[in-house]
Amino acid sequence: MDLIGVAVSGMNNAHDISADMEQGKKQQQRGKLQRLLREQKARLYIIRRCVVMLLCWSD
Length: 59
Description:
Blueprint: H1 3-56
Pfam families: DVL (PF08137)
Keywords: Cell membrane, Developmental protein, Membrane, Transmembrane, Transmembrane helix
Subcellular location: Cell membrane
């Protein structure tokens, strides 16, 4: 391989690494969003159960 081929392959490797880092960041953000969504669903479930309990409760 000549010097230009080594430089080009080095640039491609750097691009691949940065693309992998970007993908990792996107997966992290997706994980955070999924966790927040799951927490919100749990809160809504609890609120819904409380409302039903209050509506159905009689002395």
